[in-house]
Amino acid sequence: MATSSLLSDSTFLSTSVSTIADATTEFAAGRGYLSACTLGLPTRGTVAAITADTATWAAGQASAAGYGATAERARAAYAGIVGVDVDRVAIGSQTSVMAGMIASSVPDGAEVLCVDGDFSSIVFPFLAQSHRGVTVRHVPLHALAENITGSTWLVAFSLVQSATGAIAEADDIVSAARTHGTHTFCDTTQAVGWLPVDASRFDATACHAYKWLCSPRGAAFLTVSEDFAPLLRPVQAGWYAGDDPWGSCYGPAMNLATDARRFDVSPAWQAWVGAAAALDFFAQLDIVAVREHNVGLGNALSDGLGLDRRNQAIVTWPDVDGSAFARISAAGIIASSRAGRARAAFHLWNDEEDVDLLLAALRR
Fold it and tell me: Among 77, 174, 218, 331, which is most exposed with the fewest C-beta within 10 angstroms?
């Protein structure tokens, strides 16, 4: 069967998911894996789709058009997950590439407001514009909204902080930005897939789907509002950003899409095969129920560690010497260490036993 037919429908969409217990069965492993914030685990549907595609490719039956249809399926599924129209979604490969396009569009001499300790992919692209007089000001996350002024052209921040799991007060940030005529760019990579996200609230959002959306690395999304899009320069434009991609393979004329597709980066085909299956799965889920599941486990770990409950899927605590992370790793638990803190993340494949295993490892 050719890829064009194999991957253009929901062949690898699992049976209807009605409960968290049903969702858990979609993962072949996960006991002791507390690192969705670093790398999500693939669903059974994603594994099946990639396996089938590899065989199809090896048999010489893959087609570029089929891969394109798969990428479009993923785009539509993601639009539904984050609550925007599909024509507001662009696809790409990395958050930093999308942030770089936005950074290149910041006016000369303008100010960008960022968060102290935010992930570098949402900061470095703006710092790289200093040669044009673009200035980047950093403030603590809790003080972000109050530091937006009439001089701030853009506020760029992660909805969920990678190093700490802290969740930004998006309502306050968006309100302050509107008051001062400031644009908003939100990285939702550590949020979409477990935290309900309405991307339409922001001028632009970026999300790499390989974490909480359990997709292969190399599938990322940009959403951009209708009002903000005209202010952006599609500096990475290629054939896939054309109004008719297959009619845009050669110059010299350039006729870009009129919607968010003008910001597309041509898809890394195999990554999108797995992403489409994963996004079909997540589109079925009650994300509020996923949040309650993940947060419940995070709060249980916080209780066991004597930390304040913060209603986060990512729980971190000081570990400057790395001793806690070493004990966790020695017990065969997969977690992570960032910015002098041990970090554990809970997702669909985890349950109370994972909390108990982590606490037991730390007590050894």
Answer: 331
d(CA 323, CA 137): 34
Q: Can you list the domains of the chain with their CATH numbers?
A: 71-282 (3.40.640.10), 287-362 (3.90.1150.10)
Identify which of 185, 125, 116, 112 has the alpha carbon closest to the alpha carbon of residue 151: 112
Name the pLDDT band for 167 (thresholds 50, 70, 90).
very high
Q: What does the longest C-alpha to C-alpha distance in the chain come to?
A: 66
So what's the pLDDT on residue 12? Answer: 46
Q: Which of 231, 215, 223 is nearest to 261 (CA)?
A: 223
Residue 350 DSSP one-character state: -
Amino acid at 302: S
Q: Are 79 and 89 in contact (CB under 8 A)?
A: yes
φ/ψ of 191, rounded to 5, equals -125, -50
Cβ count within 10 A of residue 189: 27
Of the candidates 16, 17, 1, 94, which has an alpha carbon nearest to the alpha carbon of residue 49? 1
Hey, which residues does 317 pair with through a beta bridge? 342
> Has residue 6 got a pLDDT over 90?
no
Give 130-170 as a DSSP string.
Answer: GGGT-EEEEE-GGGTGGG--TTEEEEEEESB-TTT-PBP-H
Main-chain phi, psi angles of 115, to 5 degrees: -100, 135
User: CB count, 10 Å around CB of 246?
Assistant: 11
Coil, helix or strand at residue 182: coil
Sequence letter at residue 202: F
Residue 194 DSSP code: T
Buried b (16+ CB within 10 A) or exposed e, 315-341: bbbebeeeebbebbeeeebebbbbeeb
The Cα 361–Cα 364 span in angstroms is 5
For tokens 């710092």, name the residue: 127
Q: What does the alpha-carbon distance between residue 294 and residue 352 come to, in Å, rounded to a whole number?
A: 10
The answer to whether 276 and 7 are in contact (CB under 8 A) is: yes
Strands 111-115 and 152-158: parallel
Cis amide leading into 267 (omega within 30): no
Residue with tokens 């950003």: 241
CA atoms of 75 and 118, how far apart (whole Å): 27
